[in-house]
Specification:
It comes from Algoriphagus boritolerans DSM 17298 = JCM 18970. The chain is α+β, with helices and mostly antiparallel strands and about 250 residues long. It has four helices and 14 strands.
């Protein structure tokens, strides 16, 4: 009987641990993908990179963020800072206080979009993200978990109605494909395929081929079939250059 007590205790602990994990299947898959792409390194690092001749500095944790972009145009040296406190633009070191609200919104969305895609899959655990597991699927001989992400109005930004699909490898949990619908600038739908992987500072960064269908009103759920049948057009390439990762952990 004494020998049974330790065994029963271990079984009880295992049952309690299992019952404590209240995550959905989608949440478990996203968590595994975040771990595969860099895990805690995402929120303990400052990341710098160049994208389309603009320099970005990105920092993000579950409770705080700061996104900076810097470039030079006809007005001089422009620096945009978006963080928990809001948006600030300076030109040649002087703060611009006369920006119309619509411009502040446009600049903020632009910076946030670059940061969001560069940090994937980390941002999929934002509080406003609603993740739904759509089951397993297959693309060109590889098996994937397919997850749909939508956003609640509170905290989901101005364009919370946008919809996203993500394909995570069953074997490795890497994010190999994504598709999304959007409503800005007349709306549309896109699919992205990983074209290159760069690992820096323990984080997996990915470049993408940006693809579009002939009909911009195509439902995002149709993008996989269009991709497999080669009925998507290459629109652009998403390439991060000069990536640097500075660890902030002590």
């Amino acid at each position: 009987m004494k020998k049974l007590i330790p065994i029963l205790s271990l079984l009880l602990v295992a049952i309690l641990c299992f019952s404590c994990d209240q995550r959905t299947e989608a949440e478990k898959i996203v968590d595994a993908s975040i771990e595969a792409h860099g895990g805690k390194a995402f929120e303990s690092s400052k990341i710098d990179f160049d994208f389309r001749n603009i320099h970005y500095t990105i920092f993000k944790t579950p409770t705080a963020y700061e996104y900076i972009r810097e470039f030079t145009d006809s007005t001089g040296t422009v620096k945009d800072v978006l963080n928990n406190a809001g948006f600030v633009r300076t030109v040649n070191g002087v703060k611009i206080d006369t920006l119309p609200e619509e411009r502040v919104g446009a600049f903020s969305r632009s910076i946030n979009s670059v940061a969001y895609f560069a940090f994937l899959p980390y941002g999929l655990n934002d509080a406003a993200a609603v993740k739904t597991y759509l089951g397993e699927t297959e693309i060109r001989g590889e098996k994937y978990h397919l997850i749909k992400v939508t956003f609640v109005p509170e905290g989901g930004g101005e364009h919370y109605e946008d919809e996203f699909l993500y394909w995570f490898g069953v074997a490795d949990y890497f994010l190999d494909y994504m598709a999304y619908s959007y409503h800005t600038d007349g709306g549309g739908v896109r699919m992205r395929e990983v074209s290159e992987v760069i690992e820096v500072g323990g984080i997996r960064f990915q470049n993408y081929l940006n693809l579009k269908p002939e009909d911009k009103n195509t439902p995002v759920e149709k993008m996989q079939d269009l991709y497999i049948s080669d009925n998507l057009e290459l629109l652009s390439e998403i390439v991060l250059e000069n990536i640097q990762v500075e660890s902030l952990s002590k």
